[in-house]
Write a structure and sequence with these properties.
GO terms for molecular function: methylmalonate-semialdehyde dehydrogenase (acylating, NAD) activity. It is an enzyme of class 1 (oxidoreductase). The protein is an alpha/beta fold. The protein is built from 18 helices and 23 strands. The strands form 6 sheets. Strands 15-16-17-14-13-19-20 form a 7-stranded mixed β-sheet, with helices on both faces. Helix 10 links the parallel strand 11 and strand 12. The longest helix is centred in the N-terminal third of the chain and has 18 residues.
């Protein structure tokens, strides 16, 4: 059977790459090669940027109502093709089908938000701010934007970028992850089926060379990045030095604080799902649970819950988690588990050597739980990006807040409690961008911005919500005064009537 070659997308159509460098796209459950993706040539990237630059000249002038109608059609097509998109995600990423469908739903929320673009892009006006002087603002598009996404959400992360960028009148060049590009490509096809004109949305593929070309290109005005801290820092620094706006959402070490007054079963079920869903391959995974006071006695329930989770291929409907995305990702996670045991953490549940019947080549790691974790251990300091939960015990809420705030990352955190006082104290004093109260993964709805902070974010403005509108537009302030015309050919009335 011939293996499908992933195309580029330029000028509104799929384009076969002429690159000599290609990478296999694998099914993580079987290691079967399901596609091949090119690493674009410099000329191909240049062609994509040129296409976007040319399209911007006309797209920026398209009425807001027409852009709105395209977004409305786009969201309808995503809804119609949810199952197809989810199957493509599962095929190349490995996450379970229900999890993949949930990802499509989260991306859909952003597109639905973009459907309100006539209201979102409104400026402000002060009539008669001075003597017959009006002052008003215009929120105008920047030009060509670029997006660079990680593998873990091949639908949601692109939706965090291009829908609002193009809805505000920009054009776009997207570089998806080379590990699972098929669902992203199908999303782009649906955007064009919805009515995006040629050149408004283009796709290139590749590694560091392509990323650097996008960072350096003078025609690209803004870059949105979601991925690792190492790459995100590089993109932010290189893009900023080239004079671009850059938003970089990066690594995390998220904590779930559990108070002894919390609903026990709900808290445990939620923290297990947030730690092990998508095999822990998400930047908002709660990979550390901080048990406060008497809640430390709940460790046995957490261990039992982890042991009872079902591991299988993403196509297995009752699976709680699927394989890791690649053998390299699996080996890295296994290495960190080994290191945690060597450093003295208690390995309460060992996910190594996990075998799934019928899938001997799958990248499976079972749910893993460490207790007695200390802040100086590698399993706490590094973002494992796998199904590994670190359990920490403290005496008080103050100690829990101090422990979380001492971590350099600030992406998300949650607290489980029935005390309004404790919840308010936590949300006020915690130094983390996104807070959940009895919510395990505090990713806000799409009309609020994604607000990671500290080591998890570079740039002032994040994706989604009002911040994204500000990121993809520039504010132009107009101060205007109009004088009465001179008496020409019969005076002002005849002048106006001409």
């Amino acid at each position: 059977m011939s293996v499908r070659e992933i195309p580029l997308y330029i000028d509104g159509q799929a384009v076969a790459s002429s690159s000599s460098e290609w990478q296999d796209v694998l099914n993580p459950a079987t290691q079967e090669v399901v596609a091949r993706v090119p690493f674009c040539t410099e000329e191909e990237v240049e062609r994509a940027v040129t296409s976007a630059r040319q399209a911007f000249k006309t797209w920026r002038k398209v009425p807001l109502a027409k852009r709105q109608r395209i977004m409305l059609k786009f969201q309808a097509l995503i809804r119609e093709h949810t199952d197809e998109l989810a199957e493509l995600i599962t095929l190349e990423h490995g996450k379970t089908l229900p999890d993949a469908a949930g990802e499509v739903g989260r991306g859909l929320e952003v597109v639905e938000h973009a459907c309100a673009i006539p209201s979102l892009q409104l400026g402000e006006v002060a009539e008669n701010a001075a003597n017959e002087v009006d002052v008003y603002t215009l929120n105008q598009p920047l030009g060509v934007g670029a997006g660079i996404t990680a593998f873990n959400f091949p639908i949601m992360l692109p939706c965090f970028m291009f829908p609002l960028a193009v809805a505000t009148g920009n054009t776009f060049v997207l570089k998806p992850s080379e590990q699972d590009p098929s669902s992203t490509m199908r999303l782009v096809e649906l955007a064009h089926e919805a009515g995006l004109p040629e050149g408004v949305l283009n796709v290139v593929h590749g590694g560091p060379d392509v990323v650097n070309q996008l960072c350096d290109h003078p025609d690209i005005k803004a870059i949105s990045f979601i991925g690792s801290t190492k790459v995100g820092t590089h993109v932010y620094q290189r893009g900023s030095q080239a004079g671009k706006r850059v938003q970089a959402m990066m690594g995390a070490k998220n904590h779930c604080v559990v108070m002894p007054d919390a609903n026990r079963s709900q808290a445990i079920d939620n923290l297990l799902g947030s730690a092990f869903g998508a095999a822990g391959q998400r930047c908002m995974a709660n990979s550390v649970v901080v048990l406060v006071g008497e809640a430390r006695k709940w460790l046995e329930d957490i261990v039992e819950g982890a042991r009872n989770m079902t591991v299988g291929p993403g196509s297995q409907r009752d699976a709680d988690l699927g394989p890791l995305v690649s053998p390299q990702a699996r080996d890295r996670v296994l290495g960190l588990i080994e290191k945690g045991a060597q450093e003295g953490a208690t390995l309460a549940v060992d996910g190594r050597g996990y075998e799934v019947e019928g899938y001997p080549e799958g990248n499976f790691v079972g749910p893993t739980v460490f207790s007695d974790v200390k802040a100086d251990m590698a399993i706490y300091q590094e973002e494992i990006f796998g199904p590994v939960l670190c359990v920490v015990g403290v005496e008080t809420l103050d100690e829990a807040i101090e422990f979380v705030n001492a971590n350099p990352n600030g992406n998300g955190t949650s607290i489980f409690t029935n005390s309004g006082w404790a919840a308010r104290r936590f949300e006020t004093e915690i130094d983390v961008g996104q807070v959940g109260i009895n919510v395990p993964i505090p990713v806000p709805v799409a009309y609020f911005s994604f607000t990671g902070s500290r080591g998890s974010k570079l740039g002032d403005l994040g994706p989604n919500g009002k911040q994204a509108i500000r990121f993809w537009t520039q504010t132009k302030t107009v101060t205007a005064r109009w004088f009465e015309p001179e008496n020409i050919s019969g005076g002002i009335n005849s002048t106006i009537s001409m």
